[in-house]
Amino acid sequence: RRLARAHTIADLRTIARRRTPGSVFDYVDGAAEQEIGMHRARNAFESVELHPRVLRDVSRVDASTDVLGARTALPLVLAPTGFTRMMHHEGEIAVARAAARAGIPYVLSTMGTTDLESVRACAPTARQWFQLYLWKNREASEALLERAAKARYEALVLTVDTPVSGARMRDIRNGLTIPPALTPRTLAGMAMRPAWWMNILTTEPLRFATLSSFDGTVAELVGEMFDPSVTTEDLRWLRERWTGKLVVKGVQSIEDARMVADLGVDAIVLSNHGGRQLDRAPTPLELLPRVVDAVGHDCEILIDTGVRTGADLLVARALGASAAMVGRPYLYGLMAAGEQGVERAIEIFDTEYVRTMRLLGVASTDEICAQHASLRSAHRP
Ligand code: FNR
């Protein structure tokens, strides 16, 4: 019922805001420093012009395509997000189930709050990828790799844009800790969001996919655990060790895309981490055509940050990406209504994508090409 009025991702965001404590909503919704990078990434999608062709038979359309060598129902991947059980007590399991039902891949984060074996077990035939942050403690990272391989994660996604945490000003101002602390302010907020608090207080305490326990701010956690000395040597090491598909997420230049492709990775995610790391980093969509040119067929390119509509998926395909990832959109769904909310978020992308394909005169995802969309002048490389 709550979802009856959710027709767009923006609608889900509005419901999410009403259902979750402000500091939790802000953790999802916010970005780093002045949040310029996040807005620019979104603006780039909004400024794209679509070029329809008419008099084409679009009575049947096929939205499916190959991503990382296997079929997916839509060119959409659910991005890794940390602490997902903080957004809603069903957390990663709800997201994994909704993705599995929709036939699209889900990436579990190293900072997930459900252990990686349980996430795998809840949808054993689904496409699941595991996102890796390299720890200062390399033995712990190796153990994690072994667990991910044993649990049969299809791909490993190494995130490389987080040597330290970006400064998320909303979190700093809200005094957000993981798990959220009981302070006079949060206690006062309980009356406003009783369902969220009931669920969080009566279900298992937040556990981490990989860490035993933690209590502090996100920046403290990253500073303590993440290894800022990671280089291409580590990527070579990973390539030798991990026999499945290997993806590098957080590439933000043509030169780095070329360098990473030369190391034999299967895919690159052009991403500025939702604008949550370096503010004013390049806008992924503006880099996309040039990176695709530079890398050619050596590896697949995915893109994220600012994807909010089905038409955006089409734009990503037209400019050369094999798929787009989304983070906040499915988290808004999760905060709004748990698993059903995630399902609705995916449904919205699907409906909008198929409608846009028809209006553009394309009958299958594989037909979408550079003729169908262009960046307008300010965003042209
Ligand atoms: C993230 N992101 C992220 N990325 C990653 O590699 N590991 C992680 O643990 C997280 N955690 C995380 C938490 C939250 C709350 C958000 C919103 C994002 C980044 C994520 O994978 C993706 O790059 C962005 O979310 C994409 O931008 P949009 O779709 O949110 O605009």
From TrEMBL:
Cofactors demanded by this protein: FMN
An MF annotation (GO) of this entry: FMN binding
Q: Which residues form the active site?
A: H273
Q: Which residues bind FMN?
A: 80-82, 109, 131, 159, 249, 271, 304-308, 327-328
Keywords for the protein's UniProt record, in alphabetical order: Flavoprotein, FMN, Oxidoreductase
Name the residues that bind glyoxylate.
Answer: Y27, Y133, R168, H273, R276
Domain FMN hydroxy acid dehydrogenase stretches: 1-378
Give the family from UniProt: Belongs to the FMN-dependent alpha-hydroxy acid dehydrogenase family.
Indicate what this protein is called per its UniProt record: Alpha-hydroxy-acid oxidizing protein
